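Go through this one:
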Amino acid sequence: MRSKKVAAGAVPLRLAETDVGDSIAAASAPLGGTRPKAVLFDMDGTLFDSEKLWDVAIFELAQTYGAAVPDE
C-alpha cells in the first residue's frame, strides 16, 4: 500500500454523521440486514495476538503524518 504524504500538524478529516450511518448500513448488508446481538473486542491478545498488527498500524500512521516511532 502506498501512503500519502501529509504535512506535519495536519488535522485529519472527520466523517459526517450521515457517512458513518451509511458505513454501518453497508457493513451489516452481508448479514442480511440484521444486526449482531454482540460484538467482542479482544484488545489484550486473549483470543488473537494482535500486538504486531498494532505496531504496524502505529508505524504507518506515524509515517503518514511525518512522525518517527522509536524502536522498542
